[in-house]
Amino acid sequence: MEDLTDNEREEQLRRWWSDNWAWIIGGVALGLAILGGWQYWQRHKLQTAEQDEASYLAVVAALEGRNRDEAVKQAAELQQRRPGSPYVDQSDLALARAAVERREFDEAARLLRGVVDRSQDAELRLVAKMRLARVLVEQGKHDEALALLDVAQAGAFAALAHEVRGDAFAGKGDAAQARSEYDAAIEASTPGSGVDTAYVELKRDALERAAAADAPAADQPAAEAPAQ
Q1: Is-contact 135 109, C-beta < 8 A?
Q2: How many helices (H) and strands (E) does the chain have?
Q3: Contact at 8 Å (CB) between 121 and 155?
Q4: Which of 63, 126, 149, 192 has the lowest CB atom count within 10 Å?
Q5: Collapsing DSSP states into helix, strand and coil, what is residue 202?
Q6: Could you tell me the pLDDT band of residue 171, with boundaries at 50, 70 and 90?
């Protein structure tokens, strides 16, 4: 087949463009629309995250200013506007911490249970569980605290879980189990575990001293019976 002349190539190109221009322009327009939609969605996500963060920071600022009502209001508005936002969980953790400081343990437990039940963030759920278990110990609900903490599933929080379990057993009066949990907490502790090993040792040693004080002195002779 002979090569096409310049005029023939031009005519062939003109016919091809006439047959396909609509598809080409439509494809370009569709690609631009997809790109524009993606960019809009990215901007929308960024703006939404910034709004959520601003609401959370408003909760923290209100708590720092001891304006509890304003903190609760900001948290409620955030939850109503964006119930699935991780900043809702962060806000409830902040409110729960403030409630613990006021020794309002029922309110703290309610807030923490909400985070445990709904959070999509596995780490936040574990944080909430640890704090809830501490609150339950303060409330004297030692068995509930123990049931809540599964060390095998605690991951990086294993050392902290052992410590809280030790507190729960100590509260129940089971010194042997408490000492065992404290020893496990010390052994599992790492620089980033959040466990103060010196404090855990103090709690463990206090149990041992209490047990020694309560035990009868085996080496002391029995008191002689009074003369008749």
Answers
A1: yes
A2: 9, 0
A3: no
A4: 192
A5: helix
A6: very high
1's tokens: 């087949």
Burial of 53 (0-12, 13-18, 19+ CB in 10 A): middle
* Residue 51, both tokens: 């709004």
Q: ∠ CA 92-196-63 to the nearest 5 degrees?
A: 25
- Which of 202, 200, 188 is CA-nearest to residue 159? 188
CA gap 217, 228 in Å, rounded: 27
Q: Are 164 and 130 in contact (CB under 8 A)?
A: yes
Average of per-residue pLDDT across 73-87: 88
d(CA 107, CA 218): 49
User: Six-digit token pair at 147?
Assistant: 């049931």
In the structure encoding, which two tokens stand for residue 94, read together?
A: 């902040």
Q: What is the mean pLDDT of residues 91-120?
A: 94
Residue in the structure block whose two tokens are 């690609």: 31
DSSP letter at 84? T
